[in-house]
Design a protein that fits this description.
Oligomer: single chain
Distance between the termini: 96 Å
Largest sheet: 16 strands, mixed
């Protein structure tokens, strides 16, 4: 073992006695304490809440280099070698400083951790044209150049001198990356494998991707030509692009077929079914029919597909998925009122189907050429437990239509600029459906319309600029929950009509409409609570021929809430006529104009704030 010397400390040799070794370590401890005081002058900041160490328990500490904000060691070992807590903003395991000091020109393979990324990197030394290795000065994580304090290479400083900390320059690639990425409202682990093929068109070509989402595990490889091949593992088994596989001993078969179009440059070698811009539903329907009885997935790749007859989903547990607005199904025919067949009401129609998902498609109703009343984007007839999500249904007569269908989820769709039919989203004789997070704007009649439908949840939707009629309409529909929706610039924000009973209307924003919320035509036992109904042209909340309703905790004001903000025909809350009975109107913010009760029996209005006084009638 070579001699170890510290200035002012006795020599420590292999044949020293135990007492000499202990004394030497004690001397080293005091010397290191003084040396650390010097290092503190070179650190940006250091917060130490407690130092409690027994020098005799440290067995081996061989420090190669100590750099400001960096500790590089060959061995750091204690008898009980646990790190109780370590907080850093970056972690880099490379040995670039050591390699330069030792003249080591070999590759570096190391791990770098920063922010929400873990990267496995490899690097090779760069050389100039004459074969001389290129070098550069090392910096800290903020890009500040580092200098050695002295030629012992024990500590660094930011003070410029003649001893810069040097390293070799490296060509580096990332071979593996693990990170958190945002998918919708959640952050999920995401793994990228490989450095790719160096494509300037798409840096992801030649890489593999692993992602655990809500449907299972998805493994994707992007080929050199830019196309993807998939392997998905989920509750329904294993699905592959371009193939069908069996699932274990149960023998379930899950298939996945891809469809492309020559109009967007796809070729027969890249997809399972190739469309040509004419009667493109033929290939789509054939792919759906060729799925096994247990169902599967058909993916329609980006492009515009001309549809001249309805696409009827032929079996249960089928997923029909596009690439968002890049996959356009364009209507080239008129529908009839039929529930199935080539002229079925929906461009995509589900009749007595369950377990299906229609996702990420744009359905262009092409209304300038095809404007029949029954032209609908997606229709469900007597179909239960299906999901319609992420679709864009524009310029149809109606966007999404459910008839006698229950327990479906309609979420995250955009249904705008639909005209000549009923509405953007229409539920008829349908119950227990979830209608959430949809955007239903600029439709001629209604944003969302429930007719003879009960026990549905309508939440978090945006229904604006449906100027002819209403943002949300409930007609002869009971026991529904309408909450957290935004309805502006409609004839009426939310319209409860024709014996619609026992509904909960809460937490909605209904502003700048003709009326914020209407309860009319013998609608009773509804709870209208906590809504914001400001700056509507005529009424914040209007009741006509409606009984036993509770209207409480709402805000219904115009402007700044002064009497001058109201014309004679403008009201905060108005019970119109003598056919309103036994309604409770309480604790509402009606600044500028008190609640007006036009007649009726047993109506109570109390605790409503309408002026700056403490009087609450």
């Amino acid at each position: 073992m070579a001699e170890v010397k510290l200035p002012g400390i006795r020599d420590l040799r292999p044949n020293a006695s135990v007492e000499e070794k202990i004394q030497a370590l004690t001397d080293a401890y005091h010397m290191l304490t003084k040396y650390l005081e010097f290092l503190l002058l070179n650190l940006d900041s250091l917060n130490i809440s407690e130092i409690d160490a027994d020098i005799t328990r440290i067995k081996n500490l061989e420090a190669v280099n100590i750099i400001t904000q960096t500790l590089i060691t060959q061995t750091l070992y204690a008898e009980k070698g646990y790190i109780a807590e370590l907080t850093v903003d970056q972690l880099d395991t490379s040995q670039k400083v050591r390699n330069y000091l030792e003249g080591n020109l070999g590759d570096v393979n190391y791990i770098k951790i920063y922010d929400q990324y873990i990267e496995f990197r490899t690097g090779s030394v760069k050389y100039d044209e004459g074969g001389v290795p290129l070098t550069e000065q090392a910096t800290d994580d903020k890009g500040r150049p580092l200098y050695w304090v002295d030629d012992t290479h024990m500590a660094s400083t930011y003070e410029p001198n003649d001893l810069p900390v040097m390293i070799y320059q490296y060509d580096e690639t990332v071979k593996l990356s693990i990170s958190f990425r945002r998918f919708g409202e959640t952050y999920e682990p995401y793994i990228i494998l490989g450095e790719g093929i160096g494509s300037t068109l798409d840096p992801d070509r030649g890489k593999a991707f692993i992602h655990k989402d809500t449907e299972g595990l998805l493994i994707t490889y992007k080929k050199a030509d830019g196309t993807d091949v998939y392997l998905r593992l989920g509750e329904n088994g294993i699905s592959l692009s371009h193939d069908t596989v069996s699932q274990g001993s149960e023998g379930k078969r899950v298939a996945r077929f891809t469809i492309g179009t020559t109009q967007n440059g796809w070729t027969a070698g890249e997809v399972d079914y190739l469309c040509d811009g004419v009667d493109d539903q033929v290939e789509i329907i054939q792919a759906l029919k060729n799925l096994p009885k247990t169902g599967g997935e058909v993916v329609i790749l980006d492009g515009t597909y001309n549809i001249t007859a309805s696409i009827n989903i032929p079996k249960n547990n089928v997923s029909l998925r596009g690439s968002g607005n890049a996959t356009i199904l364009k209507r080239m025919y008129n529908s009839t009122s039929e529930a199935s067949g080539s002229t079925a009401r929906g461009l995509i129609t589900l009749n007595k189907k369950s377990g299906c998902k229609i996702q990420d498609l744009q359905i262009d109703g092409n209304r300038s050429r095809y404007y029949a009343f029954y032209n609908c984007g997606i229709c469900l007839y007597s179909s239960n437990n299906n999901t319609i999500t992420g679709n864009t249904c524009v310029t149809n007569s109606s966007g999404i239509y459910l008839y006698s269908s229950s327990d479906n989820t309609i979420t995250g769709n955009i249904c705008n600029n639909n005209n000549n039919g009923y509405d953007s989203i229409f539920l008829e004789s349908s119950s227990n459906n979830m209608i959430t997070g949809n955007i239903c704007n600029n439709n001629y009649n209604y944003g969302i319309y429930l007719y003879l439908s009960s026990n549905n949840t309508i939440t978090g939707n945006t229904c604006n600029n449906n100027v002819q009629y209403f943002g949300i309409l409930l007609e002869s529909s009971s026991n529904n929950t309408v909450t957290g929706n935004t309805c502006t610039n409609n004839a009426s924000g939310i319209y409860i009509h024709s014996s619609s009973n026992n509904n909960t209307i809460t937490g909605n924003t209904c502003t700048n409409n003709g009326t914020g919320i209407d309860l009319v035509s013998y609608s009773k036992n509804n709870a209208v609570t906590g809504n914001i109904c400001n700056n509507n042209r005529y009424y914040g909340i209007w009741l006509s021929r409606s009984n036993n309703n509770t209207v409480t905790g709402n805000t219904c004001i115009r402007g700044t809430g002064t009497p001058e903000d109201y014309a004679t025909n403008q009201y905060t809350i108005f019970l119109d006529g003598t056919d309103n009975n036994y309604n409770l109107i309480s604790s509402n913010n009606c600044m500028g104009k008190a609640v007006v009760i036009g007649g009726g029996t047993g109506n109570s209005a109390w605790g409503n704030k309408f002026d700056a006084t403490n009087d609450l009638p």
